[in-house]
Amino acid sequence: MATLARLQARSSTVGNQYYFRNSVVDPFRIKENDAAVKIQSWFRGCQVRAYVRHLNRIVTIIQKWWRSFLGRKQYQVTVQVAYYTMMMNLYNAMAVRIQRRWRGYRVRKYLFNYYYLKEYLRVVSETNDAIRKALEEFAEMKEREEKKANLEREEKKRDYQARKMHYLLSTKQIPGIYNSPFRKEPDPWELQLQKAKPLTHRRPKVKQKDSTSLNDWLACTSARSFPRSEILPPINRKQCQGPFRDITEVLEQRYKPLEPTLWVAEPIDELKLAREELRREEWLRNVNDNMFLPFSSYHKNEKYIPSMHLSSKYCPISHKEQFRSENPKKWICDKDFQTVLPSFELFSKYGKLYSKAGQIV
């Protein structure tokens, strides 16, 4: 009981001391808590920053590998494009060279062949000279014929005049006006009158009356048996009453011209004729009927057919051998040239090969 009494007496003192001590310890507790929070925050910050640095290093490595992969792939594509471009330029240059050679050969042989044109112009000039000479001879002949015709016409006119004036011819008793006794020689007209015959006037023929016999009447062969009547003028009469059409409209419908249909107007073989005409025009435009295949051996065993210029009636060209001359001694091999693939086939072929190589790498 004494102990309980002592504890009750000291209870107020213990409570005050407890509150006093707690009040003194609270600032230190708060300071320690702040210090612990700061330490934890610093440690967690270091930990997060280290993790972020780790993630940055990993991301940088991934980006480096990915960008190196993209760069290598882009470089491969650039190399392929450059290779294809170089090959296309090479093939285009080869095609241009082939075209240049072929066009030069064609122009020299068919269009601007100097020696052929010179020979052609020489023959044309000779032909023109011959034609001009023939025309001059023809003109001279025509002139001579015209002069001869004029002389004959004048001779006929003088003969006719002499026949008309034949009554002026001199006789033994009375000399004519053209045979004067005071002239040494008679006038030329006197000689012309002596050669000419007197002009006699023809009696006009009397038309006999048309006499038809009974047999002609019975056989109906005479024009008077059934005389032809002229076309009478139309009768001006009034138009009939009722639903009747005009006479001119009826006659136009009765005597209208034939209008055939398209099926009847056009021939049956029109398409065939049009194709033949088109084929004929294409044949006229072509220089050579055979297809030009310089890189194939299809026409190797065929005989060469000369062109139109070489097969003409003029003399052949002396220098034609230089266009198709062959020297077997200079041949490297006996094989034919390889055919050149088109550009798109080359591109597709090499593109597939390089795409497969890229997949393998």
From TrEMBL:
<keyword id="KW-0112">Calmodulin-binding</keyword>
<dbReference type="GO" id="GO:0051295">
    <property type="term" value="P:establishment of meiotic spindle localization"/>
</dbReference>
<keyword id="KW-0175">Coiled coil</keyword>
<dbReference type="GO" id="GO:0005737">
    <property type="term" value="C:cytoplasm"/>
</dbReference>
<dbReference type="Pfam" id="PF00612">
    <property type="entry name" value="IQ"/>
</dbReference>
<dbReference type="GO" id="GO:0000278">
    <property type="term" value="P:mitotic cell cycle"/>
</dbReference>
<dbReference type="GO" id="GO:0000922">
    <property type="term" value="C:spindle pole"/>
</dbReference>
<dbReference type="GO" id="GO:0005516">
    <property type="term" value="F:calmodulin binding"/>
</dbReference>
<keyword id="KW-0677">Repeat</keyword>
<dbReference type="InterPro" id="IPR051185">
    <property type="entry name" value="ASPM"/>
</dbReference>
<feature type="coiled-coil region">
    <location>
        <begin position="117"/>
        <end position="159"/>
    </location>
</feature>
<keyword id="KW-0963">Cytoplasm</keyword>
<dbReference type="InterPro" id="IPR000048">
    <property type="entry name" value="IQ_motif_EF-hand-BS"/>
</dbReference>
<protein>
    <submittedName>
        <fullName>Spermatosis associated 17</fullName>
    </submittedName>
</protein>
<dbReference type="InterPro" id="IPR027417">
    <property type="entry name" value="P-loop_NTPase"/>
</dbReference>
<dbReference type="GO" id="GO:0007051">
    <property type="term" value="P:spindle organization"/>
</dbReference>
